[in-house]
Structure formats: structure tokens, C-alpha cells
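Translate sequence into C-alpha cells.
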Amino acid sequence: MTNLDRINESILQILREDGRISNAELADQIGLSPSACLRRVQELERTGIIKGYRAVLNYAALGIGFTAYISVGLSDHTKKSQLAFEKAITSSAEVRECHNITGTVEYLLRVETSDLAAYKVFHTDVLGTLPQVNSISTYVVMDSPKDDRA
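Result follows.
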């Protein structure tokens, strides 16, 4: 693992806020020469600390007006059942995140659709048809005062 000294931590913080910042601007903000800054960024990329760069999207402008978190309990707790569920769910465009979790259910999904009616179609026609699914609980996102996902 790369040593996360104060400079590397500063680089990561600035890149979290603006992944498109030029190397010259980044170097200036950190107080390094551009070549030294670039070497550090490349090392953070090479070691996998920086996995990639993403655009932060305006979901409302894309027609995505409904977000929900869904807890899913499986009827069968075998590896085969988990793999079948994961395969089915990862092919669904509405599912933006799928997490295998501990607790009373096996999965937590983040789902985005255009509206409640589109979510109902997903709920009925996708989740409702999967033989592995035993329980579904939906938590509708009303607002996101903090969301640091890129």
C-alpha cells in the first residue's frame, strides 16, 4: 500500500472534489512541482487507491426523479441462491448499487427510476419475479442533504 502522508491525503481530497483539475493546478494547491505531483497521482492510480474518475451527474436532468433503498431477504441462504440473485439484479439498469450485508436481510439495493410508477414496474416485474426473493422493504429517498458519491 502506498504511504498516505499528508500530501497524498491532500491530493485525494482535492481530486474527490474535482477529478478534472489539471496537474498544474493540483500541484500548485499542494505545493509541489508538477512532475512530483504527477508521480504521486500516478502511484496512487498504480496501487489502486485511485480506481478511476467519474462525472457527477444531474439525475433530474436525466429524467431520474425517484430513488429508493431496498432491503431484500432471500428465501434460500445458499451460495447458489446468492449468485443467481446477484446475476439477475446486476443486469437491471435501475439498480445502481447492490450490497451483500449482514443483519436480518441479505442485500441492500439503491434503485433509481424516473418516477414512482416506473419503480412499481421494477418492483413487480423484476424483484417480484425472482424466485430467490422472500422479502422486500422499500425506503424512499425524500432528500439527500449529504451525498459524496461521485
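Note: The chain has two domains: 6-46, 66-140.
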